[in-house]
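Could you help me review a protein record that somebody else here produced? Here is the record exactly as it was handed to me:
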Amino acid sequence: MPRDRVNLGVRIFLFGFILMFIGILVTIIGMITEAPATPASYGGLILIGPIPIIIGAGPGGHLILPFLLLLFILLLAALIVLRLTSGPRGGTGIAENFR
C-alpha cells in the first residue's frame, strides 16, 4: 500500500476524532449555558451497512431529520467515489487514468 494512502487514512481518522471532540465540547458548553427549562431536540443517524436508521425527537426534531438524510446521502456518495478510485484489490483505480 502506498505511503500517501496510509497518511490519508490516518488524517481522515484524526479528522473524525477531532470532530467528535469538538461535538462533545459544544454539547457540554450548551448544557452549561442553556436554561434548564428549555425543551431539548435531538437527532441521530446510525448506519448499519448501507441501511440508515434516522431518529429524532423533541420540538425541533423534525427539522433535524432532513439534515441527517442529506448527511447519509453525502456519506453514501463518498463511499461510492472511494470505491471507484481504489480499484480492484487496492491498486490504481479509475481516477488514476485522468491524472
About this structure: Residues 3-33 form the longest helix (31 residues). Residues 1 and 90 are 7 Å apart (CA to CA). The chain has a mean pLDDT of 76.
